[in-house]
Fold this protein.
Amino acid sequence: MDEMGKGMNIFYAPPSQVFGSHVELTGQEAKHASKVLRYREGDPITIVDGEGSRYECKIVQITGSSVKAEVIDSKKIAAPVPELVLAMGIIKKRDRLEFAIEKSVELGASEIVLFRSRHTVKENVRMDRLEMTALSAMKQSLRAYLPEISICDSLQDVLDSYCSYQALIAHEKVETDAGIGSGLKSKDKLLLLVGPEGGFSDKEIEMATEREGQIVSLGKHRLRAETAAIAFLSQFI
């Protein structure tokens, strides 16, 4: 691969693998750099830590299990504003759930919370696959922040965990022409709520609005859960 092609890639090393003037890639990241993309000692390489730090480096050592790089320059990337936490009902089909995770990372979600609700069908989630999907999406979109993915057992748990955030609830039955941004009490920390395939129950909507959540419309037509997540996040790009 030529230098231009290599320059279009970034790699991930968590903060525990950043040692002041050096950064170490291990596991699949090291294999991808050395075996797939054929980086060599002396090559420039860009590494992010998933927490906003971006390192421009030079590879100094490649072994069978790691790639060690010297930091030439580093930069702290400002966290996106507003801070967007996407809370989404668990989607039954794995490919659609992974698609939603991928696009949510690309669109700048700071955290992704999956929750079980009254209308949830699927119970088990492969977190390892979702985390791999999120990592790949972060690298593909050249972002420096890797969103945490978590699971809550109910919408109430989500609201309790993010009580300091302004909650916006996407609901197809609301009739409004007002923009999503109108009337927000907080413009810095937003909790975007998207229901599962069956939508929110009336009790869940009542619970969210009792906690000063704002019901918003994503348009005249009913959207699949993963499409709703994308449409919701897209309002804040």
